[in-house]
Amino acid sequence: MDESLLNENNGILDLGFARLDTDRRSRCGFDEVVYCSGKEDEYLIEIFKTLYNDQGRVFGTRADKRQGELLKKALPGLVYDEVSKTAFLKPEKEELIGRIAVVTAGTADIAVAEEAARTCEYFGSYAERIYDVGVSGLHRLLSKVDNIRAANCVIAVAGMEGALPSVIGGLVFNPVIAVPTSVGYGANLGGISALLTMINSCANGISVVNIDNGFGAGYNAVQINRLACKNN
Amino acid sequence: MDESLLNENNGILDLGFARLDTDRRSRCGFDEVVYCSGKEDEYLIEIFKTLYNDQGRVFGTRADKRQGELLKKALPGLVYDEVSKTAFLKPEKEELIGRIAVVTAGTADIAVAEEAARTCEYFGSYAERIYDVGVSGLHRLLSKVDNIRAANCVIAVAGMEGALPSVIGGLVFNPVIAVPTSVGYGANLGGISALLTMINSCANGISVVNIDNGFGAGYNAVQINRLACKNN
Amino acid sequence: MDESLLNENNGILDLGFARLDTDRRSRCGFDEVVYCSGKEDEYLIEIFKTLYNDQGRVFGTRADKRQGELLKKALPGLVYDEVSKTAFLKPEKEELIGRIAVVTAGTADIAVAEEAARTCEYFGSYAERIYDVGVSGLHRLLSKVDNIRAANCVIAVAGMEGALPSVIGGLVFNPVIAVPTSVGYGANLGGISALLTMINSCANGISVVNIDNGFGAGYNAVQINRLACKNN
Amino acid sequence: MDESLLNENNGILDLGFARLDTDRRSRCGFDEVVYCSGKEDEYLIEIFKTLYNDQGRVFGTRADKRQGELLKKALPGLVYDEVSKTAFLKPEKEELIGRIAVVTAGTADIAVAEEAARTCEYFGSYAERIYDVGVSGLHRLLSKVDNIRAANCVIAVAGMEGALPSVIGGLVFNPVIAVPTSVGYGANLGGISALLTMINSCANGISVVNIDNGFGAGYNAVQINRLACKNN
Amino acid sequence: MDESLLNENNGILDLGFARLDTDRRSRCGFDEVVYCSGKEDEYLIEIFKTLYNDQGRVFGTRADKRQGELLKKALPGLVYDEVSKTAFLKPEKEELIGRIAVVTAGTADIAVAEEAARTCEYFGSYAERIYDVGVSGLHRLLSKVDNIRAANCVIAVAGMEGALPSVIGGLVFNPVIAVPTSVGYGANLGGISALLTMINSCANGISVVNIDNGFGAGYNAVQINRLACKNN
Amino acid sequence: MDESLLNENNGILDLGFARLDTDRRSRCGFDEVVYCSGKEDEYLIEIFKTLYNDQGRVFGTRADKRQGELLKKALPGLVYDEVSKTAFLKPEKEELIGRIAVVTAGTADIAVAEEAARTCEYFGSYAERIYDVGVSGLHRLLSKVDNIRAANCVIAVAGMEGALPSVIGGLVFNPVIAVPTSVGYGANLGGISALLTMINSCANGISVVNIDNGFGAGYNAVQINRLACKNN
Amino acid sequence: MDESLLNENNGILDLGFARLDTDRRSRCGFDEVVYCSGKEDEYLIEIFKTLYNDQGRVFGTRADKRQGELLKKALPGLVYDEVSKTAFLKPEKEELIGRIAVVTAGTADIAVAEEAARTCEYFGSYAERIYDVGVSGLHRLLSKVDNIRAANCVIAVAGMEGALPSVIGGLVFNPVIAVPTSVGYGANLGGISALLTMINSCANGISVVNIDNGFGAGYNAVQINRLACKNN
Amino acid sequence: MDESLLNENNGILDLGFARLDTDRRSRCGFDEVVYCSGKEDEYLIEIFKTLYNDQGRVFGTRADKRQGELLKKALPGLVYDEVSKTAFLKPEKEELIGRIAVVTAGTADIAVAEEAARTCEYFGSYAERIYDVGVSGLHRLLSKVDNIRAANCVIAVAGMEGALPSVIGGLVFNPVIAVPTSVGYGANLGGISALLTMINSCANGISVVNIDNGFGAGYNAVQINRLACKNN
User: What are the 10-residue block averages of pLDDT along chain B, 232 residues in total?
Assistant: First the structure.
C-alpha cells in the first residue's frame, strides 16, 4: 500500500479555510488545480500563492475576468485567458509533447474547448485546435480527418445534439473523449441531451465527461498522451 | 367552413365497439388505418372487413404474427408482412409515384423502417430502402448520398444516439423526417435519448416523429411526396 | 458522390473566429444563416458583411434589439424586426411562391411564429398568418379551417399543453410542422410538456421541431412548399 | 371537531391482515372500496364479505378475471365486469341521479372510462358514455357537444397526447375531470405525457387525476353530481 | 350542435394584436379573463378597456405592481391586490353565494391561495380562507375541520411535499381541488414534487391543477359551488 | 487510524466468487448480511454456511421462496419468512432491547415493513408493528399516537403519495426514518414520487432511505435504538 | 391520545399573517424555528420577537445579510452568522452534550455544513467540524477516521457526485445523515445527482435529507445525540 | 483525406440483411464485432462465418446461452463464455500486452466486468481482474491499490451509487474508465443514478461509458493500453 495514504501529517496543506492536497503530484502525477468560481477574493489569492510556492507553478479554471485581474496583480507573470477563463503561472519554458486534437462542432463550443486545450498545455501536452467542424457540414470535418487521426487522443466538444464524437469515433484509432456542452436551447436540457447522445454512441472508443467540463477532458487526454509518449 | 364538420350522421361508421372515421379520405386524403395491437380478435376482423367494404382496401399496423394469420384467413388476398408487422389488402395494381428514401443507421432499426416503407407504398409512393449506413462507418453513408439526394423526402431511422438525421440534413435539399427508435440499452431511455438528439439537431430541415413511429413518418413523407408530384 | 464533399479548399470561408459554410446553397438549397445570440459585436458584423458579399443577401435570427441597431448601421438597407428578432437584407424584390399557413394557439406564441414566417418569406415562400386560434375557443379555429387547408404546409405553434397541432392534423391534407413553445408555467417544463404532446399526437401528418424553433419550422416548411411549387 | 376523529375504538374494523375504514360513509359519504389487485385470495374474499355485511353492499376495482370468478362464487349475486375490472354487489335497486358524461378519445381508453362509469353508477349517479371522439376527427366530438354540455360534470379520458380535455373545457359550463391513460407508446412515458398535457391545459375548469385512475375520476364526479342534485 | 360554434363573425373581438373570446360567458358561463404577465402596456390597457366595455366588468391575473398602477390609472375604480397579483373592476355589488374553503399548508402558499380566493369572489362565490394549517402541526388543521367540511368545495394549496390534500381528502364529503405550489427548495423541482404527491394521493375526491395555478383552482371551485347552489 | 484499515490479510474472507467483509462487526457493529436476490444456488448456500461458521449466525434479505426452501435444507434451524423475504439463523435466544415503531400507510406496504422489522429483531432491537394507518383515514393514525411516541425511532413506510412520515414527524420527539415503497401506479414512477414527497417533507426529524429498502431502514433504526439503550 | 392535539385554542399563536406552532417544544422537543428567506421585514421581526418572548430564545435559518442586520437591531444580543446564514438569540449559557461529527467533501459544502452545525449547537449538542475531506484525496479522510467514529451521529455533506457518505458509512458504528448539496455544475442537476447517489448507497446506516438542508440534518442529528446522552 | 472514405465498393460486405464494415481494422485498428442480442439465428451464424473468413477471427457480445451453443456448433473451436455472454474464435496464440485493471464494486457487477475483460483479451491486452472491492469496505480496495496503480488504464465497474471510480481516481496516475451498471433497485433508475455519479465525479481522470457497456470500456482501454505499449 502506498505510504502517502497513511501519513496523517503529510500531503495536506491546511490553510484553515481549505485543506490543499499537496500530495496530488506524487499520487496522481498532476498538480493540485484551483476551481476559482465562487471563491472569496482573499482566499483565492492565498490559495494561488500557496500552491505557487509549493509547486513552483499554478493553474486555475473558471476564473471570471475580475478574478483574473486580481490574480494578475497578486502574482506577477500570471497569465489570464478570457476565452477559456483560465489563469496560470508556469515560469519554466517547457516543450509540449505528443499531440491531442481538440475539436469542436460549432463556434459556441470554443470556450469549453479552450479550457481543455489550456489544460493540455499547462500539463505539457501539445494541443491542436480544430474548431467549427460540426456534422451538418460534413466537408468541414472530412477535410481535417488526417489531422484528427494523427493525435494520440481526440477531445470532441459539442452542444445541441452532440453528434460529433460518434462521427469521429468511426474515423480514428485512438480514444475520443466526448465533452457535451450546454450550448443550445429548448430540449437541450442544459446539455443533458448532448450528454445522452454521447453516452449512447454507436461508435466505439468514446467516453464522456461532465457537461462543459473542458478541464476534465484535458486532464484525461494528458494522461493518455503521456502514456503514448512515455517510452520515446 | 368545411361541410363535413357539421354533419352529425356522416363521416362516422359506428360499430358499437368503435366509431370508424370514414370521412378521413375526403378530409385528409388518406384512408382510415387500423392500429392492430391489443384489439380483440373478433373486433379486429370486423374492423378490417368494414373498412375494406367501405374503402375498397385496408391497411393495418402493429399486427403480431397471430393477428396476421387471422386476418389472412378472414380476408382472402390480404398480405401480412412479418418484419414491418403490417397487414394490407389493396387489390388494384397502382403505380408508385415520386421517391422517398428510407434510411436506417443499423440493422436493428429495419423493423421500424419497414413500417415506414410499407406505409409509403400502401399510399402510392415509391420508397427506396437504404439500410445500415450509420455514422460510425461514414463511408457507408457517403456512398449512398446521391440516392438520398434524389428523394423528395428522406425518412431517417436511428436508435442509440440517433445522429444519422443530423448528418443527412446537411447533405440534402429536401425535408428529413427523423424517426428515433427504441434500439439500444442503458441510457437510451427507451428511445428518449435518440428523440432528444434529433429534436436538438444543428442541421436544418429535420422534423421528428414519435419513437418507433414508422407509420407516422411514412404518412408524413407521402404527404410531401404527393405535393412534389402533384403538378406533373 | 457529390464533388463538394471532397474539395478541401472550397465550401468554407474561414474568418479565423468562424468557418462559414458557403457551400450550403449548392448543397442544400439555402443560404447560410446567422444565429446572432451570444455573438460578439465585431464578429457579428463581419459575418453579416461577409455573407452579404458572398451571397448577395443575408439573414440572422435571435438578434436582440441592440444587435439589430448595430447591424442596421453596419449594413444600410438591413431590416430588423423586433417581434421575430430577425435581421435581414435582401435587395432584390422577389415574388413569394406557394402558401404556408403559420398558426398560433395564443398571442404569446406570436414571437416564435413570426420567426417562422420571416424565415419563409426570406426564402421566397408566401406565409399566411393565422394567430390566436387555440383549442379552448374552438370557434376561432373552425372559422379559419379553409385558409389552413389551402396551404401546402402548416406551421402550428403552441405552448402550454400544445394541443393545437393534433386538432389541425385531423382537418388537413398537407403536412403539419408542430412547434412547441416555452410559453406557460409550472409543469410546462420550459416547453417539454408541449413537445411531448406534439410527439405523441394521435393525429397523423405531424412532425415536430425543437422548442421555440420558429426558424427550423420555417426552413422545413419552405422545403415542402418549394417541392409543391416546383413543377408549376 | 368531528367526534369520529377522536374515538379510538370506532371506525376501524380490524381483520388482522387489514384495518377497514368503516367510518368512511359517515365521514366522507362513500363506502370503503376494495382495491383488489395483488390481494391474496382468502383475504380478498373476507374483505368483500365483511364489508358487505357491514355496509349492505360492496365495490371492488382492479380485479382480474380470476378474482372476479372467485368473488362471484363467494358472494352470490355479485357482478363482475371484465372490461372495467370491477366487482360489485348492490342488492337494492337504486335510481341513478343527475348526469355525468364519460368521454373517451379512443377505443383503447374505454377500460379506464368504464371503471369511472361503473364507479358513478355504484354510487348512485347516472353516467352517459360517449366514446371514441378524439380530437383528430373533430366532427365526432362536435356531434356530441350537446350531450356533453348537459352533464353536471364531464370525465374526459385520453391517452397519447391527451388533448381531449382542453377541447371539451372550452365548450362546457361544468367541471371537467381529466383522466390521462397509459395508452400510447414511445414518448408517452406510460401516461406521463398525457398527464402533463392535461395539467398544462390552456382551457379552464379542468382538473386532473392519476394515470388510468378511472375510479378516482368517478368518485370525484359523483361528489360534484351529488352537490348539483342535492337541492332538487 | 351549438350555433355559436358555427358563426364566423361572432364570438371574436379582433383587436389586431389579440382575438378576444367574447363568446365565453355564453359558452362556458365565465367572462374572458386577462393573463397580464408579459403583455405590453398599451395592449394590456386596451384589452382591459375593451373587455370592460363588452362585459361590464373585467378581471386580470398575474399583474405585477407596475401593471396594477397603470391599470388603476386607466380604469378608475379598478382594484389591484398586491398579494394575489389580481386586478379587477366589478361595479355592481353582488352577493356571494355558497362556500368554498381555501386552505394553505404554509404562509408562503398564501399568494397562490389569494389568487384562488379572488377568482372565487370575482365570479360570485364566497371564499373562506383557512391558512397555515400544514400537516406537520396537525392540531392546527384539526381545529378547523368543521369549517372545511362546511364548504361545497375545498381548494387545498401546498408546496414542499404537498401532503395537505391527502389529509383533507379523508375528512370531507365534497371535492378537493389540490394546488401544488413552487414553494420549497432542492428536490422540490419547482413544484413538480408536490404535484406528483397530489396526483398519487391515496385519498379520494382529489383532483389537481397546475403548479401555482390559483386561478384555475378558483374557476373550477366556482363551477362546483354554482352547481351546489343552483337549485336553491 | 483504525488498524483494521491497514491489514491486507484480515477482514476479507475470499470465497473466489465473493470477498466477504468479515471485518464488519468490529468496524461497524453489525454482521455481514446477504442480499440473496440473483445469487446462484451453490454460491448462496456457501455464503450462508461460511458466514454462519464465522459469525455464529446469519441473515439474508430478498430471498425468494425457492431460495428460502433451499437454505432451510442447507442450514437446519434456519427460518424463512415469506412476507419479508428474509432468511435467518440465530441460535441464541436474545432479549430484544428498546423500542422501534414500524408503521405503514397501507396493507400493500407491509412486505417492506416486515423486512425492516425482521432486521431490527435480528440485530436485537424490539420492533412494534403499527400497520395500515395511512393519512386518508386519520383516526386510525391518531389512535396509535402514544405507541408511536414511545419508540426511540420510527420507521414510516408508505407508497403512493408517501405523506405518512410528514404527519408523524410533527407528532414525535424521536427520529423518523421514511421508507418510500413502489406501491401505487401511474405517476408514482415506481416509488420516485413517494421518495420526493419524503425528501421534501416540511416536518423535521425525517430522513429517507431508498425505495423498498426495509433492510436499510431497520439497520439505521437499530443504530439509533442501540444508542438510546447503551447507557441503561 | 395526546391532549395537545385536541385543544383548539392552545398551541397556536395567531399573528394574523402567520400561525406560530408554539406547541412544538412540548410535542416534539424542539422550539419553533424561523425560515427567514422571503419573509417581509416587519413580519420577520415580529415573528422573532414573539417567539423570543414565548420561548426565551429564538433561531432563524436562511437569513440573508440584510435580514441579519435588521434582526440584530431589533433584538439586542442576537447573533447573525454570515456563512451559515443563521440568526439566533439564546441568552443562557448551555453546556453542549454528546458529539456530532459534521463532515464535508469540499470547501464549497461548508455553508450547508455550518447551517447543520449551528442547528446542533442551538439545540444543545456538541458539533465537531471536519471539513474538506472528500474521497478524491482519501488520505485526508482516513486521517480523521477516529474523530468521525467517536461521534454519536455523523452529518456527511457533499455535492457533485456525493460519494462521501458511502465511504464513511463503511467505517462507523453510528448513523450517518447524508446531505446532498447543489454544489457542482452540468449533470449535477442542482443536487439531484448527489441525492440519488446517497439514496442508492451500498453502505448501510445512511439516510438522506433534502438538498442543501443543513438544518434538517442538524435537527435529526440532535434527536439521535439526545437519545445517546439521555441516560447519562 | 483517407482514401477509404471515398471508395464506394470497398469496406462494405453486403449480406443483404446487413452491411458489414470490413474496413474497420484499417480505419480504426479493431475488427468488426457482433452485437448478438436480438439477431435471427441464421443471420447470426452467417455474420460470424463471414467475419471469420474475412478477418481470421471473430468476437461477439451479448450472446445468450442458446446463441452460444448454436455458434459453437456452427464454428468449431469457438468459445462461449456464459458469465460475460461473449463468443469468440481466435485461432492464433497471441501474447497479451501491457496491463489493464478491471475493478468491480460488488459481485453483481462481475458480468459487465467480464465483458470488458474478455474484450481486452480478444484485442490483445492483458486484463487483471480485481473484483468486489466496493467503497463500503474500504480496506478491500486499499489492499489492492498497488495492483490498480500498476495498470496503464483502469476500468472501474459499479452499480448502485457508483462511487468506486471517484475513490480510484484520486489514487492513480492513469485514466479511469467508469462503467455504471444497472445493478441496484428503487432510485437506481436502471443505472442512471450510477451514471450521474460518475459523470459528476470530483476526481479527475475519469470518463464514462454507457450503462452495462463492458465492451465499450474494454475497447477504450485497449486503445489506451496500445498507446502505452506502442514504443516498447
Answer: 45 82 89 93 95 94 97 96 96 90 96 98 97 92 95 98 96 97 96 98 96 98 96 65
Q: Are E56 and E64 in contact (CB under 8 A)?
A: no
Which residue of E5, E6, E192 is in closest CB contact with C187? Answer: E192
Task: Kindly tell me the sign of the dihedral angle through the C-alpha atoms of G4, G6, G10, G14.
Answer: positive
CB contact under 8 A, D139 and B11: yes
Contacts of E192 in chain C (CB under 8 A): 187
All structural domains of chain E with their residue ranges: 3-89, 97-231
Q: Are C114 and C83 in contact (CB under 8 A)?
A: yes
- In chain A, the residue whose alpha carbon lies closest to the alpha carbon of C23 is A137
Q: Is residue D226 pLDDT above 70, yes or no?
A: yes
Q: pLDDT tens, D211-225?
A: 999 999 999 999 999
**What pLDDT digit, counting tens, does each position of E83-109 carry?**
999 999 998 788 999 999 999 999 999
What is the rounded distance in angstroms from the CA atom of residue B156 to the CA atom of residue B163? 10
Q: Decide: helix, strand or coil at residue A13.
A: strand
- Whether residue H4 is predicted with pLDDT greater than 50 in this model: the reply is no
Candidates H137, H142, H186; nearest CB to F21:
H137
Q: Spell out which chain E residues touch chain C, with contact meaning CB-CB distance below 8 angstroms.
A: 4-8, 11-12, 17-19, 21, 23-24, 38, 180, 182, 190-192, 195, 210-213
Per CB distance under 8 Å, which residues of F are interface residues toward H?
Answer: 4-8, 11-12, 17-19, 21, 23-24, 27, 38, 180, 182, 190-192, 195, 210-213
Query: At CB < 8 Å, which residues of chain C contact E?
Result: 107-108, 131-133, 136-140, 142-143, 185-188
Query: Residues 6 or more apart from H70 whose CB is under 8 A from it?
Result: H41, H44, H45
> Do E and B touch (≥3 CB pairs < 8 Å)?
yes
Task: Report yes or no for ipTM above 0.85.
Answer: yes
Question: Do the bridges between strand B13-14 and strand B19-20 make them parallel or antiparallel, or are there none, so unpaired?
Answer: antiparallel
pLDDT at E192: 97
Question: How many other C-beta atoms can be found within 10 angstroms of the C-beta atom of residue G231?
Answer: 11
Alpha carbons B39 and F93: distance in angstroms, whole number:
60
* Chain B residue with minimum CA distance to H38: B108
Strands A97-104 and F176-180: unpaired
Q: Give the C-alpha separation, G143 to B2, whole Å.
A: 81
Listed range (C207-211, D159-163, E143-147, F22-26) with the worst mean pLDDT = F22-26
Q: Stretch H140-159: mean pLDDT, rounded?
A: 96
Residue G180 corresponds to which cell in the numbers above? 446532498
CA distance H54 to chain A (A): 20
Q: Residues of E with CB below 8 A from D177's CB? A: 207
Per residue in B189-202, pLDDT (tens digit) is 999 999 999 999 99
pLDDT of residue G4: 44
Angstrom distance (rounded) from CA A219 to CA A35: 14
Contacts of F226 (CB under 8 A, 6+ apart): F29, F97, F98, F124, F125
Which chain C residues are Cβ-neighbours of H8 within 8 angstroms? 1
**C216 → chain B, closest CA residue:** B204
Whether E161 sits inside 8 A of F201 (CB atoms) is: yes
Q: Which fold has domain H97-231?
A: Rossmann fold (3.40.50)
Residue A29 CB coordination number (10 Å): 15
